[in-house]
TrEMBL record:
Belongs to the PriB family. Homodimer. Interacts with PriA and DnaT. Component of the replication restart primosome. Primosome assembly occurs via a 'hand-off' mechanism. PriA binds to replication forks, subsequently PriB then DnaT bind; DnaT then displaces ssDNA to generate the helicase loading substrate. GO terms for cellular component: primosome complex. Gene3D superfamilies: Nucleic acid-binding proteins. GO terms for biological process: DNA replication, synthesis of primer. InterPro entries: NA-bd_OB-fold, Primosome_PriB/ssb, Prisomal_replication_PriB. It comes from the Bacteria. It comes from Shewanella insulae. Involved in the restart of stalled replication forks, which reloads the replicative helicase on sites other than the origin of replication; the PriA-PriB pathway is the major replication restart pathway. During primosome assembly it facilitates complex formation between PriA and DnaT on DNA; stabilizes PriA on DNA. Stimulates the DNA unwinding activity of PriA helicase. Keywords: DNA replication, DNA-binding, Primosome. It holds the Pfam family SSB_1. This is Replication restart protein PriB. One of its GO terms (molecular function) is single-stranded DNA binding.
């Protein structure tokens, strides 16, 4: 069985909302994560940025709160997305979002 589940917390650095041609609401945010973890018995600084996509009406009640500087935790799955420049990147498709502030 294949597993695809990711939990990532961080701070929103960008946010935009729009509706698809089919009328489905979407919110796209850039999430910045900073933490420290132990790896090979040494403390390591960890940093990443990941695009997060929230799709569907179930996120309408929280979308207006997802602004730059807000801390959140996102649970969802990752998928490959090809950008307009032809490069591939991993994006996190949200299944649950929790405000941390």
């Amino acid at each position: 069985m294949a597993t695809n589940h990711l939990v990532l917390s961080g701070t929103i650095t960008r946010s935009r909302s729009f509706s698809s041609p089919a009328g489905i609401p979407h919110c796209v945010i850039m999430l910045e994560h900073k933490s420290q973890v132990y790896e090979a018995e040494m403390l390591r600084n960890v940093y990443c940025q990941m695009q997060v996509i929230l799709s569907g009406e179930r996120f309408n009640s929280i979308t207006d709160k997802l602004k730059t500087g807000v801390d959140i935790e996102v649970k969802g799955f990752i998928a490959l997305q090809r950008g307009r420049n032809g490069q591939n990147r991993l994006v996190l498709h949200a299944e649950n979002v929790e405000l941390k502030t």
